[in-house]
Amino acid sequence: MYSREHEKFVQANPVKSMVGRAERVCSLIAELIPQLYTLKVEQLADAMTDVYKKLAHKNQVHRIDIDETGQTRIMSREGDEIPFDKSAGENQVFATALLAGLAKISGIDAPLVVDTPLGRLDSTHRANILKYWVSDKKRQVILLSQDKEIDRETYAMLERNVGKTYLLEHTEIGNGVGKTMAVENEYFKELIA
């Protein structure tokens, strides 16, 4: 009896029925979003912590915490906040950990594009970041480096993982106008010779 009457109601009031279902879905989403946000933030903090520990040469970091506003804190094993070193190198390590963490939790294997990848890093951070980038064969990294940024030693670490290289050559055409061409396999020519 109820199902027959319900069916008549639905047929008579299809818009009301759809509105009711939409309201229930909206209510469910409103309940789930805060829970999912917290879960994703925790996953991002875990992924960032894992990558940061691989990249940083300071072993004092236990965890990176992210609060509900998105603020990050670097924590020691004792639970104390470690003041963040604002050097360009430390900022780059932190940014790399953030990007790698986002890539990991998204589940998307998107290429990582890094401009001036090693310019502000000391030798230890350089080695750690290079090892991280080449540690996963599925990870595609596009490095936009300056001409003196990657030397013979650095190139030797990367060489077996390099798919292609390009040298950007700019030519002045005239009146302040120029064109830039990407020339394949020219960038490291002098390092290979």
How would you briefly describe this protein structure?
The chain has 193 residues and is an alpha+beta fold. It has helices spanning 2-12, 14-55, 88-106, 123-134, 152-158, 189-192; strands at residues 61-66, 72-76, 81-82, 112-115, 141-144, 166-174, 177-184. The chain has 2 domains: 1-108, no CATH class; 110-193, no CATH class.
Report helical residue fraction: 40-55%
Number of domains: 2
The average pLDDT score comes to: 82
Order of helices and strands: HHEEEHEHEHEEH
How much β-strand is present in the residues?
15-25%
Provide the low-confidence segments as ranges. none
Rg estimate, integer Å: 26 Å
Q: If helices are DSSP runs of H or I spanning 4 or more residues, what is the number of helices?
A: 6
Largest sheet, in brief, is: 3 strands, antiparallel
| Structural class computed from helices and strand pairing | alpha+beta
Q: Tell me, what's the shape?
A: extended
Layout: helices, strands, pairs:
Layout: H1 2-12, H2 14-55, E1 61-66, E2 72-76, E3 81-82, H3 88-106, E4 112-115, H4 123-134, E5 141-144, H5 152-158, E6 166-174, E7 177-184, H6 189-192
Parallel strand pairs: 4-5
Antiparallel strand pairs: 1-2, 2-3, 6-7
Notes on the protein architecture:
The structure is a single chain. The model has no long low-confidence stretch (mean pLDDT 82). Strand 1 (61-66) and strand 2 form a beta hairpin. The protein has 6 helices and 7 strands; from the N terminus they run H-H-E-E-E-H-E-H-E-H-E-E-H. 49% of the residues lie in helices and 20% in strands. The strands form 3 sheets. It has a 3-stranded antiparallel beta sheet with strand order 1-2-3. It folds into 2 domains: 1-108, no CATH class; 110-193, no CATH class. It starts with a helix and ends with a helix. The chain is of the alpha+beta class and 193 residues long.
